[in-house]
Serine carboxypeptidase-like 18
Amino acid sequence: MASSSAPYFVCHLLLLLLMAVLGVIDIVASQSIINHLPGELDEVQLFYYFVESESSPEDELLCCGLPEAPVALPFQVLCQETEQELIVTKRQRQRGFDQLAGMASSSRPYSVSHFHLVVVMVLGTVLDKVASECIINNLPGFPGNLPFRLETGYVGVGELDEIQLFYYFIESERSPEDDPLVLWLTGGPGCSSFSGLVYEIGPLAFDINANYSNWSSTTVPTLKLNLYSWTKLANIIFLDSPVGTGFSYATNWQAYNTSDTLSMAANYHFLRKWFMGHPKFLKNPLYIAGDSYSGIPVPVLVQDITNGNEAGVEPSMNLKGYVLGNPATTLHDDYNARVPFSHRMALLSDQLYKSAETNCKGEFINIDPENVLCVNDMKVIHECLKYIMKSHVLEPWCEHRFSPTPTELDWYQSNDLFTEDHSIDIFLLSLPNQLQWCREYNLIPSYIWANDQNVQNALHIHKPCPNLPTVGEEVKRMYLNTDRR
């Protein structure tokens, strides 16, 4: 719209408001905020005035008046005429500005006698922050201030933001403006990204030696710095995904039923909104990374980002690649490969492995019960691997004597430390009686730390998360029982 026309439109608007004050016309819902635009990301907040027709409000047309905005915004305006919805393109919007300017500057007296008038005032631009974000300067268990920049927050995704994804964002300790940006997704599915932060690639770690001598469910474990953190060279977002993992939650139960494709669609939505709140990182090289089960969904997310970039979806992301550690591929192939892997690690003799390979024809999971030779070979393999620590074959296997209902698991199954019967309090009482240290015991501090109310307050958690585990078994059940298309 020509700038010279703008004052006339503003005068027309002020005249309408003056008429409303004097009682000449009625303004219905005189001021409100539109918080949700279908298909968008709520990044635009629109303020409007609505004036009903004085003749026949039920039958007259609805007219959208759009004065010149103070800033140029890349959004579409919806204008409804009777029951037909019209998407106003940039050219159509300009034409509408010109027509309304003509109405405002014309000597012909226009009133609200024959149409509804909605004047939309754009009061905001793309928001420069996500739903909630907080800078954390210190944490319970860590002495003094953190020597790096830690941000935590929630980003709402889904049509109505019904999924609230929690994240930890740690800036690079070298050059945040230039170093790569990594989105880290821990596996499971259902493992909190906090495990990646303190047990794998993050700048913090639990001081196991200090904690073991003074472990208690009421004492906050001690944290120390990890000298080999990836944040020495990269900015990292640790995301609690899928919904229900860690501190991420949903506002309705239906949203907890998810799958690989649904979860990665939510993560793509997360990234788009996160970048809108952190635009300075859009130019940084982006890598999607994860381990274990993330080997399955991470490539899906990478493909979603690629498709979005090619389709011109904003914001465009500077995707450079993805990183996977001990990734899952297909559950059958991963488990089936454990037999040849065990042979290469000298856990199975050449004779036994060759016999099983011949008799089972390379199939070690779905065994034909009528194949007696294969069944017998697999029984021997089971006995050989039953007491092998799957996470690290050189470390001792630990029988959880503290469990009131110990369960013997097959060699290809997972044995999570804490289930409904594995209370952390029972375990802590049994620690003095353990004859040897086990890798899984290192997980105990995370259970205590993350469930401490002071910790959750420091992290600005939206609501308490009781019994927060490192691995969400309920999330895993709901996840795997859905259709993973």
Q: What stands out?
A: The chain has two domains: 3-122, 128-347+388-485. The chain is about 30% helix and 15% strand.
